[in-house]
Amino acid sequence: MNLPASWEEIERLYHEALDLPPGERNALLARASPELRKEVESLLEADSEAGVLAAPPSHVVADLLDGQSSGLAPGERVADYEVESLISIGGMGEVYLARDAQGTPVALKILRRHLIVSAHAVDRFETEARAASALRHPNIVTVFQSGESPAGLFIAMEWVDGSTFRAIMNAGRVEIAQAMDWGGQAARALSAAHAAAILHRDIKPENVMLRKDGVVKILDFGLARDEGAVRPEPNSMGASGTISGTLSGTLLYMPPEILRGETATSASDMFSLGAVLYELTAGQHPFAGETLLDVFEAIECRPVAPIASLRPGVPPEADGLILRMLDRHPEGRPSAREVCDVLAGVSGPEKS
Amino acid sequence: MAVTELQPTVAILHSRVSETNPQGEVTRLLAEWSSGDQSALNKMMPLVYAELHRIARRAWSQQPHNNTLQPTALINEAYLKLANVENASFQDRCHFFAVACKAMRQILVNHAKSRLSEKRGYGMAHVSLDDVQPAVHQEAAEIVALHEALEALHAVDPRKSMVVEMRYFGGLSIEETAEAMGVSTRTVIRDWRLARSWLIREMNRESS
Questions:
Q1: Catalytic annotation on A202?
Q2: Residue B23 confidence class, pLDDT cut points 50, 70, 90
Q3: Long-range contacts of A283-288 (CB under 8 A, 24+ apart)
């Protein structure tokens, strides 16, 4: 193969063809040798493709710059906090274990810099800081401080030494009495939020933690809004964007009115908490499905089996309560206050 | 953590830069290169590489909301910093841009590779792989594929691979590329178009 010579021919014919209107190119190419014609035709075909060179590598440049200033090392400081270790990386940023000036552990959430290009990300981050700091409740994670640092936007919040409900469910079956107690604590948190006219909007097992001493803490008010019109998130399927496997995204905990694009109310949070409590008690999700359509269909139309049919021994009042929380019609669901009262009644006697 | 593979190298380069006088060094190397010493380019690379990194980090921490930060801005600043601008010849400036674009390419390819290997091998507890940024990973994969195709193009037509290096990795405009390479803008436009077609074709072949 005599490449250098033919490369010149290819180059000449390629530009000659490009200088012609597309309709006249074939006549020109027909005069070339079959090999030359094949080469030039494949290049002209590629020319019409919107390829990788169409735009500068802005994501990687941003990520490179970001990676330099974020990704905190142990000992680095953010405001008054000293970073100890990285706990998790999420779509929204990173969470570190850090310590304040007194040595008290805090969870430090950092919004990664290149995500700041999205106004939505900043909005969500600020909403979380604002909503959670407006709420002081033993079952809601406390926000100490939020602001901007060279590392990015940050929120310093109460360190919860424990596990998420998701991790607890993955580890094994939960005692019924415990599930009732935890459900009551979570409902108390929502009752306080709803009393302050704040909706959580993203209740799911990943966002509820159990501290080692048995105290339940609700996290991530990033989607919280004052009551009023809200829309489901475009990425509401969860960070992975997939629905296979455990279907860990938000979708499974979303009430039908939100899936239909209607306004969220406090009853929407109750539906999501109901789905979490059902899963916690029954050991399986009320609307699990193989595909996205299966899940939609289940949430919208499939009757929910009583928990007792899956987990004998569940108090009938609790079973009935959780099924009412999963009512397709928001007006049929109990309030957070009512859930607290009923669950206090069922978990109380066993404790005493 | 995001640049695990890159950071040790950068740290070493930084220490070298601070020990010597990078400005005098780059000026001297530019002069040596102009007088025909091809090895000067290789010696200049690490200095420019480190300086670009340093500028990028500082620029970002001073203007965190500046999303338009471009490779070309970094390169211009590195030039002002490293080269003895007043005494530098036009030739020196062209040579510097050639080295800087090559360094920028290396920086971006290294970063893309470290991102990709991080995704494959992330062993940290609690870290969900689903949460890493897909746009970054897709582009990182494209950069690595492009880098390899560009090596192949270099074997066929070095000038065209240099045009791509300057325009894509260095972020230079057509006019800046023409000036740095000492060719007409028409040549850059034509080279860019053919190189682009050629690279897209090669990358499609690789992936199919």
A1: yes
A2: low
A3: A283/A169, A283/A173, A283/A174, A283/A310, A283/A311, A284/A310, A285/A247, A285/A252, A286/A326, A287/A252, A288/A247, A288/A252
Q: Does the model's ipTM exceed the 0.85 cut?
A: no
Q: What is the mean pLDDT of chain B?
A: 72
What's the pLDDT score for residue B137? 77
Q: Which residues pair with A111 in a beta bridge?
A: A153
The confidence score (pLDDT) of residue A40 equals 93
Residues above pLDDT 90, as percent of chain A: 41
Cα A19 from Cα A33, distance rounded (Å) = 20
* Interface with chain A: mutation pick from B9, B105, B163, B194, highest number of A CBs within 10 Å: B194
For CA atoms A159, A165, A168, A170, the dihedral sign is negative
Say which residue, A119 or B144, is predicted with more confidence.
Answer: B144
Predicted confidence (pLDDT) per residue in A336-351, tens digit: 999 999 998 886 444 4
Output the DSSP codes for A27-43: HHHHTS-HHHHHHHHHH
Helix or strand run (H / E) with residue B72: helix B71-82
Token readout for A71 is 């990704």
- The pLDDT of residue A292 is 62
Å from A59 to nearest chain B CA? 5
Residues 116-135 of B with CB under 8 A from A: 124, 126-128, 130-135
Task: Please tell me which of the candidates B61, B140, B194 has its beta carbon nearest to residue A150.
Answer: B61
Rounded mean pLDDT, A232-255: 42
Q: In which element (H, E) is residue A84 found?
A: strand A81-90
Enumerate the residues of chain A whose CB falls inside 8 A of the CB of residue B168: 53, 56-57
pLDDT band at B36 (very low <50, low <70, confident <90, very high): confident
The more confidently predicted of residues A137 and A292 is: A137
The three-state secondary structure class of A152 is strand
Instruction: Select from B171, B143, B150 the least CA-distant residue to B72.
Output: B171
Option in A11, A46, A90 nearest B201 (CB): A46
CA distance A62 to B139: 11
Chain A residues closer than 8 Å to B73 by CB? none
Residues of chain B in contact with residue A242, where contact means CB-CB under 8 angstroms, are 130
Using CA coordinates, name the residue in chain A closest to B160.
Answer: A11
CA-based radius of gyration for chain B: 18
Residues 6-45 of B with CB under 8 A from A: none
Structure tokens at A151: 């590392």
Which of A71, A117, A150 is closest, CB to CB, to B2? A71
Kind plus residue range of the DSSP H or E element containing B203: helix B185-207
pLDDT at B129 over 50: no
Residue A175 per-residue DSSP state: P
Whole-number CA gyration radius for chain A? 28
Per DSSP, the three-state class of A210 is: strand
Q: Cβ–Cβ of A63/B2 closer than 8 Å?
A: yes
* DSSP characters over A217-248: EE---TT-EESS-----TTTT-TT---STT--
pTM of the model: 0.53
